[in-house]
Amino acid sequence: MTQPQFQKIVIFGVGLIGGSFALALRRADAVGEVVGFGRSAINLQQALNLGIVDRIGQDIVAEVGDADLVLLATPVGQMAELMARIAPYLGAHTLVTDGGSTKSDVVREAYAHLGSKVAQFVPAHPIAGAELSGAAAAGSELYLGKKVVLTPLPENSPDAVARVRQAWKLCGAVVSELTPQQHDEVFAAVSHLPHLLSFALVHDLSLRDNRELLLSFAASGFRDFTRIAASSPEMWRDICLANREALLKELQSYIAELNQMSAAIAAGDAAQLEQTFRTARELRAGWTEQ
Predict the structure, then answer these.
(1) Which of 43, 106, 147, 163 has the fewest C-beta atoms under 10 angstroms from its C-beta?
(2) pLDDT at 86
């Protein structure tokens, strides 16, 4: 019987991202044992009941020393503390990766808290989120055909990057690489800003006295635009603050765009509105065809 590529993995945060990682590696027969840590005993027990983890971790010191891979799948705001806790006990062969939606801040925390073990940390961002969370939301096929971005550190060995890349590929993902800064600039535009806008629209409606009337007439357009406002408030709070510089730049650009559209509406400039809509439609059509 062939040995799995990863004898033991330890996951901090056994929710959608961490739980799906475990299930996908199980589906590929690529992991022997999965140990889960987290803040919610109820969620961990559910992960155990669902077969996502083999054991609920009790002692970080005992678990990370002989692990092949550690996945930090918590909100980015919790990662600094976790790095500080695991750093002294990481085995020489133990690699660490993460599922954070921002990378520059996570990399800064890695240098600050992993110290001499920083070469064992290969940052990653799986582009496969959903508005659901918790162990019950996890699925073995979440990463199939989805992109995962690695942002390797200069200290990472080629073998370390290749091994983390292989882990995500075994999950069915398509893996690419960016620098941490490139990553954060890209995702501020195409992920973080859209989430912010969705939350803002729903929040605005929530403050109105006639919100029940408005929602009673909301249909598919509203549902599609606001789907991501059902995402984790804690996670998106951390993402917005962690990537604030790039996000503020994108937000100012979007405000300028809205001001131009507002001026066109006020002036009755049909040609400008149609041209804006046409350009947007063509770009989106080309993107969906890809």
Answers:
(1) 147
(2) 97
